[in-house]
Amino acid sequence: MLKHVGRMVKNQRGVVVAYKVVPGEPDQSIIVDTSSLMAEEHDSLIKAVEDAAGQEAEEFATVMARTRLPDGSNMLANFHSTGKLTKNEALIFGIVSSFVSVGALYFFSNVMAAALLALTILFYVFVYTIWLKRKTPQNIVIGGAAGALPPVIGWAIATGGISIEPIILFLIIFVWTPSHFWALSLFKSEDYKKANIPMLPVTSGVETTKKNIFAYSILLFPVAVAPYYLEFLGIIYLLFSFPLSAYYVFICYKLLKTKDKKSEKSISKQIFAFSILY
C-alpha cells in the first residue's frame, strides 16, 4: 500500500526555492528542506476529498487524456479499480499527512508557517477543488492562490514573518497561473468539455481565452521583474527575467493574432511548454 500511496504524492516544490532568496539564516536550511517535502503533500487529500464529497473525480479523470497512464488506463481509476488503493485509504493518508505536515511546521518552525500551510491545504481542497473547480471559468484564477503560497510558507519558515519579498514571489506564481492553464485548456478543450469542467475555452470560446492569456502575460511582465527593481535580487536575475518575460508576452501576442485553428493549437502548446520553463 505504501508504494501506491507514494505514487499518488506529486513532486515536492516551492518552499526550498523561497529559502534560497532569503538572506542569512544558514542554520535553517535543514528545516526548510524538510518542510518543502511537506508543503505539497496535501495533493493526495485534494483528490481523495473530491471523491468523498461526491465530485465524481473518477469520471473526470477517466475522460481526461492527460491523466492517462502509458498503458492507456487512468491513474486515479487504476488505483481504485485494481484495489491498490481504496478511496478511504487515500482519504486517510491525505488527512494524516496534512496534520503531520502542519504539526511539524508548528513544532520545528513557527506558528506563522504552520498557519499558512493549513490555509493552503484548506483553500485548495474546499475553495478550489470542491467549490470553484466545477462552478466557474475563474477557477484557475482564484484557485491559483493556493499554488502560489508555498514560497510564502518558505519565507515564513526561514524568517518567522512575511514581508514584501514573499508577496512578490506569491504574485509571480499567482499571475503566471492563468495563462499557463488556459494555454493547456486550449489544446485540451475537448477533454475539459467531456469532463464538464468550465474552463474558459469551454464557457467563453477561443477568442476570449486568447485575449485573457495575452492580458495576463502583460500583467506578469512587471511583476516578474519587480524583484530586481525592489532591490532584493540582482542583475543576474534581471538578465534572465526580462528577456524570458518579453518572449512570453511575444508568444502570447502571436496566439492572440493568429486565426488559423492549427496554428492556435500549436502556439498554445508552445506557450504551455515555455511557461513551465519560465
3D architecture notes:
This protein is mostly helical. The protein has helices at 2-8, 15-20, 29-36, 43-52, 57-63, 75-81, 87-108, 111-132, 139-148, 150-159, 164-187, 189-194, 200-204, 206-229, 235-257, 261-277.
How is the secondary structure organized here?
Layout: H1 2-8, H2 15-20, H3 29-36, H4 43-52, H5 57-63, H6 75-81, H7 87-108, H8 111-132, H9 139-148, H10 150-159, H11 164-187, H12 189-194, H13 200-204, H14 206-229, H15 235-257, H16 261-277
Distance from first to last alpha carbon: 36 Å
Please state roughly what percent of the residues sit in beta strands, choosing from under 5%, 5-15%, 15-25%, 25-35%, 35-45% or over 45%: under 5%
Count of helical stretches: 16
What is the residue-mean pLDDT, rounded to a whole number?
77
What overall form do the CA principal axes indicate? flat
The description of the largest β-sheet is: none
The helix fraction, in percent, is: over 70%
Instruction: Report the count of strand segments.
Output: 0
Determine Rg (CA atoms, Å).
19 Å
List keywords for this structure.
single chain; 278 residues; mainly alpha; flat
Question: Short description, anyone?
Answer:
This protein is mainly alpha-helical. It is built from 16 helices and no strands.
